[in-house]
């Protein structure tokens, strides 16, 4: 009967996101008490390769790779049923990879862990074009590569330009997307970033006050050399929801200082014509 036992793992990759607690399944079949057996969890690409070793009823922490110490454990009560699954806490992006669950004399199983990373998007610019208002949304620190969607206030998808994607040296993705909204659209818009493989979605909302959708004028021709983009329009857009209102107000004041040093009026609606040149 001992020779017929084998180590079995999941047929599909295990998905997790940074910061999660995840279980890597591993089972001795037919189900047999595994309490007295040696169980080795390892990553072949690491040195030392062990992420957890259980022998004679105790954990051999001295054999564990430093990055996994105090983050891995098994379930002694479940071992009575042949369950030698590994619990991994405080998941890091670097934890993604192939794990080997090995029981000497019974074989091994390979378990693939895919670690996703997510971050909230934010509106990085609001510009005026001849066809409407151009909104730009950006989000960094994603894995795997996400998609970006724009929605109006009724939840309808908006037609946006192609998403710009950059993969950094840390393998994390930064995505940026622009959409042009017209007067016929509602004044509320959502930028949604999602990764379906890890079932993660983040979004931010922006509201453009109704009066600001009418009579829009193009930017002033004042040259800007600052790295931070500033607003220099007749109307400053208000925002609410997930967009930080203080962020918008800070941009307005920053514009006053850059474009008109003698101007000391900063508020939700700022008229550059009223500032001394």
UniProtKB/TrEMBL annotation:
Gene3D superfamilies attached to this UniProt entry: Immunoglobulins
InterPro entries: BTN3A2-like_Ig-C (IPR053896), Ig-like_dom (IPR007110), Ig-like_dom_sf (IPR036179), Ig-like_fold (IPR013783), Ig_sub (IPR003599), Ig_V-set (IPR013106), IgSF_BTN/MOG (IPR050504)
Similarity annotation: Belongs to the SKINT family.
Residue ranges of domain Ig-like in the record: 19-101, 121-207
Predominant localisation class: membrane
Lineage: superkingdom: Eukaryota
Keywords, alphabetical: Disulfide bond, Glycoprotein, Immunoglobulin domain, Membrane, Signal, Transmembrane, Transmembrane helix
Record GO cellular component, one term: external side of plasma membrane
Organism of derivation: Sander lucioperca (Pike-perch)
Protein name as it appears in the record: Ig-like domain-containing protein
Subcellular location: Membrane
Gene name in the database record: LOC116052096
PANTHER family given in the database record: BUTYROPHILIN (PTHR24100), ICOS LIGAND (PTHR24100:SF151)
PROSITE patterns reported for this sequence: IG_LIKE (PS50835)
Gene Ontology biological process: regulation of cytokine production; regulation of leukocyte cell-cell adhesion; regulation of T cell activation; T cell activation; T cell receptor signaling pathway
Gene Ontology terms for molecular function: signaling receptor binding
